[in-house]
Amino acid sequence: RSSAASDVYKRQDIRFPMRYLIDNRLYPCTWHKFSVVEGGKPIDFRVDSEYEVISISDRIDRIVPPGMRVLAFDIEVYNPQGVPKPSRDPVIIISLTTSDGKTEILQSQGKDDRQLLKNFIDYIQAYDPDIIVGYNSNRFDWPYLLQRSRHLGIKLDVSRRRGVEPTQSVYGHISIPGRLNIDLYDFVEEIAEIKVKSLDEVAEFFGVIKRAERASIPWYEVYRYWDDEGLRPLLLRYAMENSISTYGIAEKILPFAIQLSSITGLPLDQVGATSVGFRLEWFLIRTAYERNELIPNRVAHEYEPYRGAIVLEPRKGVHENIAVLDFSSMYPSIMVKYNIGPDTLVKNADLCKEMECFEAPETKYRFVKSPPAFFRTALEVLVKTRKIVREQMKNYDVDSLEFKILDARQRALKVLANACYGYMAWTGARWFCRECAEAVVDYGRESIKKAIELAGKLGLEIIYGCLLYTSDAADERSS
Fold first, then answer.
1. pLDDT score for 41
2. For the chain: N or C, fewer Cβ within 10 A?
3. Cα dist. 382→191, 336, 371, 406 in Å?
4. Segment 246-298, tens digit of pLDDT
5. Residue 90 contacts residue 78 (beta carbons within 8 Å)
6. Pair 357, 368: CB distance under 8 Å
7. What is the reported pLDDT for 472?
8. What is the spatial distance between Cα 181 and Cα 200, in angstroms, rounded to a whole number?
9. Which of 374, 342, 368 is nearest to 438 (CA)?
10. ∠384-328-450 over CA atoms, to 5°?
11. pTM for the complete prediction?
């Protein structure tokens, strides 16, 4: 801890836009009050007016976000030679669905897509969406549209800054100045319950459109349906249902994404594109700033394997009268209980002669009992906030918008808390600590063994037991 923490923080490897947000305690997707001076209507931006911020007041505690215009889109590409190439194959259909319930299909003139791309640009400028959503759009739709437009000499002028095209930005997402571009696939990737992550499967999972009730066309046959006048109506229906599905999925995912953005401090168009580890890290950076803690620079670490989880050999056969014991948030609980963190790790054993220390049972790593570890403080904030949110949920009907938003927020808080152990083992982490991660698993194994011993004393037979963890800072489960 140092009074110079802020100065060091400003000099190092944190991008200026994020520095500005953190310095001013601004969180994306939340309400704030500003004192401003109106500067008139700017020429370079498609906005009603420009304001200069004079001062920033405290954050406003308001649950429901403002009404925002959302546009979902999907493209179909002519592909007689298989995988399409922007320099060769035209965009033949762009389907659009908006938050005011409208769906529109834009078509090329045969295989000439110049007017189609211009119509797409005009549509976005006219509708002026705050949020644009797609499915796998950061990897396919936007890169293809950009390359195809450049090939045809057309500027893809769809941002709120005149003449500025979308560009690939940090974490690989496509940035559209003045608008929030969100690839829903980034969030779906993390949903383990969805095994096949195609658009039609995901739409059915979320109850948007049943697969049996929608048009289905293999991607490699799109060109054939376009060339055949008799089949083209089915292709148009397929395209329309793609954008409707995309919008329907957005309705399910956006509340969670908005809450994740407001907690981590990452802008909405970035929070899905980045890994869980980076999301947690930005939360930790803000926590460190509030505590006047030094924020470590990013340093490359070599991976060092260590003893991991415990898995008991399952007893074969069909079993009845089964009781299941599940440890809720085991790793976060261990980190809090034993004050585990890189700032409490004792590397000089003599220190524990003067201060009280915890000692991991097998690895013998030691951690001082006080002061509280940085990770302990961060976890306590997450756990406490989640408890408050869950209490707030009781004030609303389960079908209300407020309940759904609060439920999304408590889920986002849980994801971040569960990621803390994996984050310490991630070699790209600013707060990397292999000994800390190893000690957490050590205590976890001990807890499982104690549970097995207790069950045996009660006369219970153990059929199966395991302690599972993932190394991508994404989740942890134990049973």
1. 86
2. N
3. 21, 12, 19, 14
4. 999 999 999 999 999 999 999 999 999 999 999 999 999 999 999 998 899 88
5. yes
6. yes
7. 41
8. 21
9. 342
10. 125
11. 0.87
